[in-house]
Amino acid sequence: MDPRTRQLTSANAPRLARDTGARVVAHLGPTNTGKTHHAIERMLEHGTGMMGFPLRLLAREVYDRVARSCGAEAVALITGEERRVPAAPRYWVCTVEAMPRHPVDFLAVDEVQLAAHVERGHVFTERLLHWRGRQETWFLGADTIRPVLERLVPHARVERRARLSRLDGRGQLPLGQLPPRTAVVAFSAARVYELAERLKLKRGGAAVVLGALSPRTRNAQVAMYQAGEVDFLVATDAIGMGLNMNVDCVAFADLKKFDGRQSRALEPAELAQIAGRAGRNRNDGQFCTLAPLSPLPLSTTRAIEQHDFPPLERLFWRTEALDFSSAEALLRGLGTRPFDPCLQLADHAEDQQALERLVRRGDVQALARGAERVELLWQVCQIPDFRKLLLDDHFELLASIYVQLCQRHRLDTTWVQRQVERLDDVSGELDMLLVRMAAVRTWTFITHRTTWLDDALGWQERTLAIEDRLSEALHEQLVSRFVDVRSRRRSPRAAGPAPAAQPLLRTDGPRTARSFAELATFQASPEAPNKVALREASAWDAAPDERFALTDTGHILDRAQPGADLARLGIGPELQRPEIVLLGTPAAHAAHALKRRLSAWLKTHLGTHLPHLEPEAASSPALRAVLYGLRRSLGSVPADVVEAPWDELADIEKQDLAARGIVYTPAAVFVVHAMTPLALATRWALLAPHWPWPRPPRPSPERRVVPARSAGGPALLWQAAGYVWLEGTFVRADWLAASWARTDPDTPDTKLARWLHCRPAVARRIKARWLHARAP
């Protein structure tokens, strides 16, 4: 017996699925091998079956196919946000995380190499180790997982599949030379928009595919591309997981992506997964980089062409045997070490991070007693953060849900209605629609916990109806913004009126709307739009910093044209790196130049008005933690947020922080430079995209206390605005610290109230809390 097999079949055997004699097959190989197609056909040969997919969009695509083949009454669809289960389904199509524990004859898991994904991998590994069909099990994925799979599932038969067509590298191509039926790939929504606008200017337009789109919007965009109404598709790596489209060439506009924690270069195997979308069935495909991006290294090109990549060495794993006797026992269980060297403990998953945060909250700690309450807490922590918020608003939402479920056994209907109603709004630009879409997905997920709500079915219907309305608005905006109506080819399958022309930016200053006829006349004139756009781009590049201004509402104004809003701030990778959303649709050259100029100006503006909180390379972990906490909240935090790392600082580090204007008190920690009127105004502007609607007005510089009942937003947003939660009020951090230092038992309540600009009753509660904290 092979020593590796012996290791897994001795003491560790109970941890793995038993070899019952049922067939286990791993179909491994590159893209376009027909793996998924054959798995669907094989499932339909069995009486019952289940397939797990990595994406909601892909699950929906396969569900539609199976429903057409055997009738909707025979197939169920289960994803985090969608559940269609007829009375007696024979087949189940699911996302991998949503696969139910339901015995079936045939079971398949697609893209099983995602077991090496740092956040989701443990779910795929769990399916690989424990889930089996009664008669047959298929694992589908890349050949890179083969050595680890053979070690963990020694009785599986591995079948290697060859690609049905060639995949060839073409080096580097400029935008104007991309062949029709090209998918241009970027890794942020802003970059996708920019490329789609350039394609509209040069090549007539493009369809757009983002992972954040709903299936309905994505299908409408792909249908437009498949019908030949546009020749190009601009997408994120959402197209890399088996979504079927007729793509002849994949052009990489970027080779780096932000993975949720850092910006990193894509691995060759990841590039191959995306490039492999080029070519379908027997049609050959091509891939390239988009100029001015340098061509891929020859070694990477050869690896993609020959599908030759280093094998995976480790998969992420988490124990199934969780102890719900207490929150502490649950956390200990999640830290259980893997039983084999090829498995790595998954400790970065969102649900575990949520649990670690929530159990530190006093209100959650008081309620999380007993196995039933702890298991409920774990269920709440598994609500996905589809919004990917940079602030901790998701944790606030989870805490509110948990407290309500413990106290009421149901979510408060009025509260749910208030949360959902504000999302039923199809106004605004693309990024706002996408934010609402993500929030609706979260609530659709919550409504499928049927025991958590009164009339759960009604809430499911309502959230899906909102998603449908947002989907229609998104598709209309995508077509209107990224497709030139004059060059759009109307196929027999295309229906509906042509979208209206978008407003343009005038080159002489103020933004005004032109009618479609005026635009056509203008573009036929000797002043060709490209020349005008280039002239406008040069003007923006030369604009001085003094020309721009940032408002409380996060809008960037053009001082040269009073009342002209050039752009607004959107949600970016972190608070101090917001997205810049142009207001209007200038020509691509001008838009690129304006956005570049505004980005440079904003960086200078923030550097002037907000403190620099980047640690030195040699800083200690404790110092990094303190600076990270302050940076995350734009310069001020409650003391308990950084209390632990602060206690670990060396005296010389504390002196260095004091020299940088960082003040520590038991009440609050803040940077003096972050509490000036200009800094507070800048912080408020950065928070503008994150406030729930309606957004509260910015407090005046003299307002030091904001009652919770009139705050109109989550505590963490107020914290980033410079306030600290205390005794039912938000108190500005610098005044809280000053008042702490000046307060003693003899301080009259009225005097403290004058310092804080609050009522004596509030001052009395604050003083009582401070005196209690100082007590030995």
How would you portray this structure in words?
By secondary structure, the chain is of the alpha/beta class. The protein contains 28 helices and 30 strands. The chain has an 8-stranded mixed beta sheet with strand order 4-3-5-2-6-7-1-8, sandwiched between helices. Strand 29 (723-726) and strand 30 (729-732) form a beta hairpin. Helix 16 (430-447) packs antiparallel against helix 17 (456-482). It is globular. The termini are far apart. Mean pLDDT is 80; it is low at 1-15 and 490-529.
What's this entry about, in short?
With 776 residues, the chain is of the alpha/beta class.
Oligomer: single chain
Dominant shape: globular
Helix amount, in percent?
A: 40-55%
Biggest β-sheet: count, sense, barrel?
Answer: 8 strands, mixed
Radius of gyration: 28 Å
User: Could you tell me the number of beta strands?
Assistant: 30
**What's the average pLDDT?**
80
Structural class: alpha/beta
Main attributes of the structure:
776 residues; alpha/beta; 28 helices
List the helices and strands and how they pair.
Elements: H1 3-8, E1 23-28, H2 35-44, E2 49-53, H3 56-70, E3 75-78, E4 83-84, E5 91-95, E6 106-109, H4 121-130, E7 136-141, H5 146-152, E8 157-160, E9 167-173, E10 182-185, H6 189-203, E11 207-209, H7 215-226, E12 232-235, E13 249-252, E14 256-258, E15 263-265, H8 268-275, E16 285-290, H9 298-306, E17 315-317, H10 327-334, E18 343-345, H11 350-358, H12 362-367, H13 371-381, H14 393-408, H15 413-421, H16 430-447, H17 456-482, E19 504-505, E20 511-512, H18 516-524, H19 529-541, E21 548-550, E22 555-558, E23 564-574, E24 577-582, H20 588-609, H21 621-632, E25 636-638, H22 639-648, H23 651-659, E26 662-664, E27 668-671, H24 677-687, E28 705-707, H25 715-720, E29 723-726, E30 729-732, H26 733-742, H27 749-756, H28 760-774
Parallel strand pairs: 1-7, 1-8, 2-5, 2-6, 3-5, 6-7, 9-16, 10-12, 10-13, 11-12, 13-16, 17-18
Antiparallel strand pairs: 3-4, 14-15, 19-20, 21-22, 22-23, 23-24, 25-27, 26-27, 28-30, 29-30
